[in-house]
Design goal:
Blueprint lengths: L7 H15 L11 H8 L3 H14 L2 E4 L3 E4 L14
Antiparallel strand pairs: 1-2
């Protein structure tokens, strides 16, 4: 599995998760706006959107409509633990 190529959005999600774990992004902090993230991380808006969706699935962030996306924590169970859906 480690030798398999990965999508850029997965790499970005992992990078942001690491920023949360290291304390660069604190629990409760808002992620930058999508357009700003494209500049900060040098990726497309689609990549940002897919990465944020993956982070939501992992429990790292939550998005509140018209408010923003906020850090919940490092998402300790980021690997797919259950096969519910």
């Amino acid at each position: 599995m480690s030798g398999m190529p990965r999508y850029r959005y997965e790499e970005l999600a992992d990078q942001i998760t690491e920023e949360v774990r290291s304390g660069t992004l604190a629990k409760g902090a808002a992620l930058p706006a999508e357009r700003r993230m494209t500049e900060v991380y040098g990726v497309s808006i689609g990549t940002v959107r897919r990465a944020v969706a993956l982070l939501r699935d992992r429990g790292v962030v939550a998005t509140l409509p018209a408010k923003g996306t906020f850090v919940l924590g490092a998402g300790e169970g980021t690997e797919v633990d259950s096969e519910e859906g």
